[in-house]
Amino acid sequence: MDFQVVVLAGGTSKKLVPLVSQEVPKALLPVANRPVLSYVLELLEASNLKDLIVVVEGEDAALRVSGWISGAYVDRLHVEVAAVPEDVGSAGALRAVAHHLTASDILVVSGDLVCDVPPGAVAASHRRHGAAVTALLCSVPVSGPSEAGSSGGKDKTKKPGRYNIIGLDPTRQFLLFVATGAEVEKDIRVQKSILRAVGQMEIRADLMDAHLYAFKRTVLQEVLEQKNSFQSIQQDVLPYLVRTQLRSEVSSSNGFVQAEENWNEKDATQKIQNLVRGTIPSFHERYAFGPNGSAPGFDTHKCCVYIASKNKYCARLNSIQAFNDINRDVIGEASHLSGYSFSTHNNIIHPSAELGSKTTVGPHCMLGEGSQLGDKCSVKRSVIGRHCRIGSNVKVVNSVVMNHVTIGDGCSIQGSVICSNVQLQERVVLKDCQVGAGYVYIVWRFSGVLRRLFFDKEWTLSCALLLLMENPFFKGRLQ
């Protein structure tokens, strides 16, 4: 389709600490024991979009992502991994690789997207309308936008903290207004000139920007060059294009809309008067479909949307709450995305996994390669990674346990995330917690009171206990 694809894979996102680290960047966080980036790559591959630029923040993270891609997708995809500085934002990342973009149209996809909407459908809609930008919009996840963030794996009853406010034309094909992020928490104001131009606008608060966009390359590069302060596609680039589409008859010699600063109050007043007098066609008349989907005679750019049907799954892994939700969904209601074959019990237990006597692994669960569970364990709606060692009488509910984790007898894990190489001592109870990679969680008693402590992976347990015993407060009290 002559589309160049850019996948924005992030780096070590602060929103996902302690799940991410130098060893495990965001793109490699596991969803159903697969790196989250694999879901986007295979979605693109299914649409025959195989020539990709994957942009990663930070040199170390880029090396790790590149190493994984070269092993997992050899002979399947042509991928160039580009490292950019950390915290540049999505627009900054695109700006950094803009000199590599040569195709007439660019498809920009967030690397944390897990969905089953074909990118090819968005690209085809973009071409059909001759749009400057086409954004994929999906129904808001049941648990609310992942920006709301919550540190647990609770059931999906949490109310969302923020919505996108989207304004659409009556055909629901053109994007007329957008408010995102902190804007939504304020009073929303819509310019009268927009309302007069469009005649009608449908306001929606139930749609999520999926961070999958098709751009006309010349328009995208022009905005990135002219607006050096823009950092976010969603919060800066897209709203700017939407605001200027009704002003685009004021254009420079190269056909691109002039900078916003050149649109003054006098011009706006005159154009509103012309609209009222009927000397300028209305928005819908200007954008009425012609034989080739365009409206000849007007130098304008179109901002379009592709709205996925409600039965499509679409979520972004951009918070800890979203990490829990997506892992649970991909082994539950969205199991078709996992790439695995489920058993008659509606779960996935690797043939090499071992289960003790009277141990149960319920439906919508996954047990990875080489993992072992002791006697009388119970696993419900959870993902357990590879080569884990789990003792007896352990309960794991609504949780994600990554690789090489050791869990002692009698532990209870609920609504939590346990990263790789963690060790939990016997009878540890975790609820709505996240344990970073390599930590040791111990339980001890002094003066009859139960105490808990985490130790970093670089400390041995014996050294940590020795330091505690030398502390005057603890000396003589440890048992």
TrEMBL record:
Cellular component, GO, one term = cytosol
Ordered alphabetically, the record's keywords are: Cytoplasm, Initiation factor, Protein biosynthesis
Q: Which domain of life is it from?
A: Eukaryota
GO BP term, example = cytoplasmic translational initiation
Q: Where in the cell is it found?
A: Cytoplasm, Cytosol
Q: What is its main location?
A: cytoplasm
The record ties this protein, via Pfam families, to: LbH_EIF2B, NTP_transferase
Gene Ontology MF, one: guanyl-nucleotide exchange factor activity
The record places domain EIF2B subunit epsilon/gamma LbH at 350-433
Q: Per the database record, which ranges form the Nucleotidyl transferase domain? A: 5-148
What's this protein's family per the entry?
A: Belongs to the eIF-2B gamma/epsilon subunits family.
Subunit structure as annotated in this protein's UniProt entry: Component of the translation initiation factor 2B (eIF2B) complex which is a heterodecamer of two sets of five different subunits: alpha, beta, gamma, delta and epsilon. Subunits alpha, beta and delta comprise a regulatory subcomplex and subunits epsilon and gamma comprise a catalytic subcomplex. Within the complex, the hexameric regulatory complex resides at the center, with the two heterodimeric catalytic subcomplexes bound on opposite sides.
Q: What does this protein do?
A: Acts as a component of the translation initiation factor 2B (eIF2B) complex, which catalyzes the exchange of GDP for GTP on the eukaryotic initiation factor 2 (eIF2) complex gamma subunit. Its guanine nucleotide exchange factor activity is repressed when bound to eIF2 complex phosphorylated on the alpha subunit, thereby limiting the amount of methionyl-initiator methionine tRNA available to the ribosome and consequently global translation is repressed.
Question: What's the protein here called?
Answer: Translation initiation factor eIF2B subunit gamma
Query: What is the originating organism of this protein?
Result: Protea cynaroides
